[in-house]
Design a protein that fits this description.
This protein has seven helices and three strands; from the N terminus they run ααβαβαααβα. By secondary structure, it is α+β, with helices and mostly antiparallel strands. It is globular and about 55 Å long.
């Protein structure tokens, strides 16, 4: 699959997963793609923990309410460090976003599905802190996202996107000529 195909086939998958383990080498490939992403001033603020142990997955799922990714055979937990870079700006959000997109594209390329779960775990009930505790994440790192990884049990449905001309223009806003 070429990169453009992966981009156009990638979408958020919230369905059930086939109960087939994800090989470690595939999880390594996915995480390496994330770590290859650009980062502001090369601060490399993004880290990740891949979880494929059914007991650890069960502990994580037990703290996610309402539940998500209950049948995924693996999960990648994304961490960030809030490190100041250029002119005292922190680019952690941009860094982990780039890493996540690289991983999501690699997941599709390898024949798996996923969904970027962030707001659900980082809102006021701070599910992310409970997951971080389960994973022994040290102080100074924030768990910001989970990516379930597995083969879809059902047929993925691509969402309808707005037309190109509604969101992209040439030389000025709204110009399609």
């Amino acid at each position: 699959m070429n990169v453009t195909d992966a981009i156009n086939r990638r979408h958020s998958y919230r369905g059930k997963y086939i109960q087939e383990p994800v090989p470690r080498e595939d999880l390594v490939t996915i995480m390496e793609a994330g770590l290859a992403a650009p980062s502001g001033c090369n601060k490399q603020t993004t880290s990740m923990i891949s979880v494929d142990d059914p007991e650890v997955l069960a502990k994580i799922r037990a703290v996610i309410d309402p539940p998500v990714a209950e049948t995924a055979p693996a999960m990648i937990c994304v961490l960030t460090q809030r490190i100041c870079a250029y002119r005292d700006k922190c680019y952690a959000v941009q860094d982990y976003s780039a890493a996540l997109e690289n991983m999501l594209l690699t997941i599709v390329d390898l024949g798996y599905q996923s969904c970027w779960f962030e707001g659900h775990i980082t809102d006021e009930d701070r599910i992310c802190d409970r997951i971080a505790e389960i994973l022994d994440v040290p102080e100074g790192y924030d768990l910001v996202c989970i990516l379930p990884v597995g083969k879809a049990a059902g047929e993925p449905v691509l969402p309808k996107k707005k037309e190109f001309t509604e969101r992209a223009w040439f030389n000025r806003f709204g110009n399609n000529g």
